[in-house]
Design brief:
Blueprint lengths: L1 H15 L4 E6 L2 E4 L10 E3 L2 E5 L3 H14 L26 E2 L4 E2 L8 H11 L3 E2 L3 E2 H6 L6 E4 L10
Antiparallel strand pairs: 1-4, 2-3, 2-9, 5-6, 7-8
Length: 158
């Protein structure tokens, strides 16, 4: 778990170094069971909020560039092991449906490993096209998600 935790923390630092991005909040870290291909170690997850002066497609490219820098390849098994997975969950209240990008993230409402850390920093927001975060979380309570202490460093809001 230590290596995965370090990887997530380093990726968050990499986000802060990107021009046009200012991280305004981040969640604690969460240990979560894998979905889909379950014969793999638990994952470490977190959610960040950023203020950005770039469009959502450029932001997606930025996230993929960081993943690649951290050793991520896209030729592996879907939902299989990977070095890093950065997802663009929402971009303000925009709804986007294109071959490259779908916002809000098309499966975020089914994943407690997304909804728990999102609720930690955003409260009970409305996810465009999906409803209140509290109701979405209730529908996923059968999934295993464990908050790892208080991982919010100084300078970040929850």
């Amino acid at each position: 778990m230590g290596q995965a935790t370090d990887q997530v923390e380093r990726a968050i630092v990499a986000l802060t170094d990107e021009p046009g991005l200012e991280l305004t909040a981040r969640s604690s870290l969460y240990r979560t069971a894998p979905m889909g291909h379950v014969d793999q170690p638990d994952f470490i997850n977190a959610v960040v909020r950023a203020s950005c002066g770039i469009g959502c497609c450029v932001l997606l490219e930025t996230l993929q560039k960081i993943e690649k820098r951290f050793g991520r390849t896209r030729d592996g098994e879907r939902f299989g092991p990977r070095s890093l997975d950065l997802d663009l969950l929402m971009y303000a209240d925009q709804i986007v449906s294109s071959p490259r990008l779908e916002l809000p993230h098309p499966r975020m409402h089914e994943r407690l490993f997304v909804l728990e850390p999102l609720a930690e920093i955003e409260g009970d927001i409305t996810v465009p096209g999906r409803g209140r975060l509290s109701a979405l979380r209730q529908a996923c309570l059968n999934q295993r998600v464990q908050r790892l202490g208080d991982g919010v460093p100084k300078g970040f809001k929850r």
